[in-house]
Amino acid sequence: MTDLSLTTGTVVRPGDDDWDSARAFHSGIGEPTVIVRASTVDDVRAALRYAASERLDVMVRGGGHSAWGAVPGGVTLDLDALDEVRVEGSLVHVGGGATWGAVARILAEHGLGVSSGDTASVGVGGLTLGGGIGWMVRAWGLAADQLVGAQVVTARGDVLEVDAEAHPDLWWALRGGGGNFGVVTRFDFRAHPLEHVVFATLGVTGDARPVLRTLRDTMRDAPRELTMTYMDIPAMDPNAPAGATVTAVWIGDDEEAARAALAPLLAVDGVSETELGVRAYPDILMDMPAADPDQPMPGFVGGNTLLGELTDEAIDRLAAFREANAASVLFLRSLGGAFGDVAQDETAFPARHATWFAMAGAFDVPGLVDDGNRPLIQAEWDAIEALGAALYGNFTPSTDPGLVTRMYGPEAMARLAAVKRQYDPQNLFCRNHNIAPA
Ligand SMILES: Cc1cc2nc3c(=O)[nH]c(=O)nc-3n(C[C@H](O)[C@H](O)[C@H](O)COP(=O)(O)OP(=O)(O)OC[C@H]3O[C@@H](n4cnc5c(N)ncnc54)[C@H](O)[C@@H]3O)c2cc1C
To answer: Is 37 in the pocket of ligand 1 (CB under 6 A)?
Structure first.
């Protein structure tokens, strides 16, 4: 048996005092064989050596927001202690276990920002490796597009400095291909000047269709400073009131420009301003309550898709889906701009021509979803997904291995599988939307 001796990290096993807290993920409670809390790159290497010798899968835990932590068995490699955030000019070096809230707070002290996601507790690791759609996606691209380099520990235990010149195949795959290729112990991002944002929320009542058409038309010619989302949620969580909301973020402090951009939406019946004001970027990131094992998230019947165009047909189908399913959620997020400037073959992320991201699903709650209507709801969603170009892995909570072929086109899949064969031929890193080695 390979020795699992670490530098300053710790090993947590069933029966240890902190076993329960160590295996709590946002998506549920895990049942790993062992948890390694790495605090150095050498700890990461030791954990990988151990996992390979014991033939155990590896679950790399960044922010712990994905569904993979709840898959039983294997080594959970917890990167929580690798959370350093170091600013050097306009570059920011971020440990593989840091969360976006911490990055945003530290960058704000330097008048800088990186487009991440919308939630503070989400991990830099999972979000960036899967792409990362955030509030500045139209101005600065995906989180992965802001990456200029990374330190990666491979399945063999090699420590690689990876960028456009060094290991270009791995560099391509890391940006959108998920955690398939190694443990990223350090991300290097190019940050952007950012002092403030204008943050606005609009309440929406009545028919969603005219609102969504106006939203689409507004975003078609909108300045890149502006990003908007639409969210309609059922009454489930006392902290998140039910109903439909448009949220807008404008980079900078120009309230008048933001208000002018929102004017067409505010002219639609049923749309009203809830708030509009200048805020610090770290303050607009949402927080997520800690995992509660007694209240597991219900299943989700539906899916997501990256849409080339938000057509009238897509809008009608999305609105009808939400209306037909009481416990359903509908979420739309504007893309285009800098997201679409990146050539399709420059990164592994799919559908660079997409102008909207859409997600809808019914929560699998007894009394609302059952064996009778579940296939029908899924078929309604499948008809919507057929209008889109690809599934976005990061917003796909299912661990169904069949889904990965809907995330990448055949050309990208073949290229990803070849990179996987080179860097992880034994598929040690399989707790992800898994690319099988070619
Ligand atoms: C509340 C919430 C809000 C969200 N908001 C957004 C959003 O605004 N935009 C968006 O694009 N997505 C968003 N997501 C989706 C999010 O991007 C994914 O859930 C992502 O996988 C979370 O990353 P994590 O590090 O927190 O999760 P983890 O469960 O720790 O990891 C996710 C995957 O990445 C791998 N991984 C993590 N870190 C590393 C690393 N350092 N090296 C190698 N592999 C690693 C893991 O092995 C796993 O396969 C949100 C999710 C939630 C739950």
So the answer is: no
At which residue do the structure tokens 């990803």 appear?
416
From 27, 66, 159, 231, give the residue whose CB has the most ligand 1 atoms within 8 Å, as the site to mutate.
66
E strands in 15-71: 24-25, 28-29, 34-37, 58-61
Q: What is the pLDDT of residues 351-386, one digit of tens each?
A: 999 999 999 999 888 888 889 889 999 999 999 999
CATH code of the region 10-78: 3.30.43.10
Query: How far apart are the two ends of the chain, measured CA to CA in Å?
Result: 29
Sheet containing 147-153: order of strands = 85-88, 91-95, 183-190, 147-153, 159-162
Cα 213 to averaged position of ligand 1 atoms, centre (Å): 31
304 in contact with ligand 1, CB cutoff 6 A: no
Ligand 1 centroid–CA 103 distance in Å is 15
Start-end ranges of CATH 3.30.465.10 in the chain?
Answer: 85-193+414-423
Domain span(s) for CATH 3.40.462.20 in the chain: 197-399
**How much is the pLDDT for 289?**
66
How many whole angstroms from 217 Cα to the centroid of ligand 1? 31
Q: For 313-317, what is the mean pLDDT?
A: 98
Query: Domain 197-399, what fold?
Result: Vanillyl-alcohol Oxidase; Chain A, domain 3 (3.40.462)
Ligand 1 binding pocket includes 415 (Cβ within 6 Å)? no
Note if the pTM is more than 0.90. yes
* Tens of pLDDT, residues 102-135: 999 999 999 999 999 999 999 999 999 999 999 9
- Å from CA of 99 to ligand 1 middle: 10
The total of other beta-carbon atoms located within 10 Å of residue 386's CB is: 9
* pLDDT number for residue 237: 62
CATH architecture of 85-193+414-423: 2-Layer Sandwich (3.30)
Check: CB of residue 306 under 8 Å from CB of residue 351: yes
In tens, the pLDDT along 318-332 reads 999 999 998 899 999
